[in-house]
């Protein structure tokens, strides 16, 4: 397997403070990512998340550990410590930057071991989906 890097970024129409309030609540992913059925703290800085079942009745479950959360730089990082996603050595970073006029930039990047470019593409699609929903949640809709 080789180390793969991926990154998704987007400008959203939400103030930095509102977007960071959503993104920095590490144990509430299910509140803004509709495909996540539940997400909760299972031990200090570790969350468990499970998706809704897909058409085949399969759901994804994952344990993720918060590596850091920095309110000053509006960034956080986490890693997958267990799960059935098939992602190895997965670490992700989320960074928000104010752009003015009620907008901010969200950058969500990751590294992982993978033997398939499909894994990278699927992960980038999921993160883009997450950013779109973060914008909705930050704007209260």
Automatic annotation (TrEMBL):
PANTHER family: LACHRYMATORY-FACTOR SYNTHASE, OS05G0202300 PROTEIN. Pfam families: Polyketide_cyc2 (PF10604). It comes from Selaginella moellendorffii. Gene3D superfamilies: 3.30.530.20. The lineage of its organism: Eukaryota, Viridiplantae, Streptophyta, Embryophyta, Tracheophyta. InterPro entries: LFS, Polyketide_cyclase/dehydratase, START-like_dom_sf. This is Bet v I/Major latex protein domain-containing protein.
């Amino acid at each position: 397997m080789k180390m793969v890097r991926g990154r998704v970024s987007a400008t959203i129409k939400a103030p930095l403070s509102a977007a960071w309030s959503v993104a920095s609540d590490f144990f509430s992913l299910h509140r803004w990512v509709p495909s996540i059925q539940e997400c909760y703290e299972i031990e200090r800085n570790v969350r468990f998340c499970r998706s809704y079942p897909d058409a085949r009745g399969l759901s994804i479950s994952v344990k993720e550990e918060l590596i850091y959360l920095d309110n000053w730089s509006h960034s956080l990082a986490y890693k997958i410590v267990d799960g059935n996603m098939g992602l190895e050595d997965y670490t992700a970073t989320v960074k928000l930057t104010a752009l003015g006029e009620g907008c901010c930039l969200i950058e969500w990047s990751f590294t992982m071991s993978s033997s398939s470019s499909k894994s990278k593409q699927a992960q980038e699609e999921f993160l883009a989906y997450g950013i779109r929903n973060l914008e909705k949640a930050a704007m209260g809709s």
